[in-house]
Design a protein that fits this description.
Layout (H helix, E strand, L loop, with lengths): L9 H12 L6 E5 L6 H13 L12 H7 L6 E4 L10 H20 L15 H11 L9 E5 L12 H12 L5 E7 L7 H4 L3 E4 L5 H11 L5 H7 L13 H14 L2 H9 L9 H22 L3 H21 L5 H17 L1
The protein binds zinc ion.
Length: 348
């Protein structure tokens, strides 16, 4: 079974193609955009574009390299997604465990259709970084490009326990080997560690047109109707879930509470569980940053500068909280403080 074809993003594909044609494609790209718009799928399209034996602006889909890419078995395509923390104590065993988790995730994705968000506690930890370095150190199996896709790069966690592995990863992104391409994806650039982000060229991936969502559903065999297509808001990942976006919904409720006064804020903070600071709470903060960044973009597109400035300052506050949340914080307290700070921005 192969992956469903990529629909939409034509303008972006054209831009990437002209960068390839003029030999100016940066070797480290950070693809950002709302959840479910197909950032990782676009990264795989770019991989296929470079690996295709015919080298056309649109990969042929028929050559051996295209087929291996679409079946996710191409030896020069390395797709990393967040995985559960390995249980083994030994570093080599941890790397093996991560490789097995990745293989299981790929098996799921080979089945076609949509793939969900990773579990809240899954991340790209030290063992994933080691595996990436190991694979990046090999030569191309088929003699051409090697493409490394790192989905949910916002889940790349700081590697305090092993600074040498963290530095090796940064060095790899700083000076990538010849004909190696690193494609990182995240909802917002601000969610990615500064050290990683500063080494990547940002590329914005926008929402799809409804026609593309419709075409995708037909190709993937996902039963849907016009209401569901509109509810998906240009994000295939939301289709068939009644437009459901649980973290986005939770983020919007938090922002309503910010506007709703002290009592509403206290209720919202109490609604946040005290445990899982790194899992669910981080996911909520990610969604809040995405929501506020979208508000900032739409306000600035509409020339509403004060609102754009407030939303952008809100993103910064969320990112600061997110950084603290990597340590030992009480999510209820952190959320209460954050909501008060956001409310103060509104009042200013
Ligand atoms: Zn091909």
């Amino acid at each position: 079974m192969s992956m469903t074809p990529l629909f939409g993003h034509q303008e972006l594909r054209d831009r990437l193609n002209s960068a390839i044609a003029t030999d100016r494609l940066p070797q480290v790209l950070l693809l950002t955009g709302p959840s479910g718009v197909g950032k990782q799928r676009l990264a795989l399209w770019l991989a296929q574009r470079l690996l295709c034996e015919r080298g056309l602006p649109e990969p042929c889909g028929e050559c051996g390299a295209c087929r291996r890419t679409l079946d996710l078995v191409h030896p020069d395509l390395h797709w990393f997604v967040p995985v559960p923390r390995p249980k083994a104590g030994d570093a080599d065993k941890q790397v093996e465990e991560v490789a097995e988790s990745l293989e299981a995730a790929l098996a799921d994705r080979r089945a076609g259709g949509q793939w969900g968000s990773p579990d809240g506690m899954a991340s790209h930890g030290i063992a994933s970084a080691r595996l990436l370095q190991r694979r990046a150190g090999l030569t191309a199996a088929e003699g051409g490009w090697r493409v490394f896709v790192v989905g949910h790069a916002e889940r790349l966690v700081p590697q305090e326990s092993s600074p040498e592995a963290a530095n090796a990863l940064l060095k790899l992104l700083e000076e990538p080997p010849a004909r190696a391409l690193f494609l990182l994806t995240a909802p917002e650039a601000g969610l990615v560690l500064t050290t990683i982000r500063s080494r990547a060229v940002p590329v914005r991936v926008g929402r799809l047109a409804d026609a593309d969502v419709r075409a995708w559903a037909a190709a993937a065999g996902v039963a849907t109707d016009e209401l569901a297509i509109r509810a998906a808001g240009g994000a295939i990942g939301r289709l068939g879930r009644g437009g459901a976006d649980p973290q986005g919904g939770a983020a919007r409720r938090v922002l309503e509470a910010v506007d709703g006064g002290p009592a509403a804020r206290a209720r919202a903070a109490l609604g946040q569980g005290v445990s899982q600071a790194r899992g669910d709470f981080t996911a909520l903060l990610d969604a809040l940053a995405v929501e506020l960044a979208e508000q900032a973009r739409s306000a600035s597109a509409g020339g509403r500068w004060p609102a754009a400035g407030r939303a952008a300052a809100g993103v910064e506050l969320v990112l600061e909280t997110r950084e603290r949340a990597q340590g030992n914080v009480n999510p209820q307290l952190a959320l209460a403080v954050l909501m008060d700070d956001l409310a103060a921005l509104e009042a200013a």
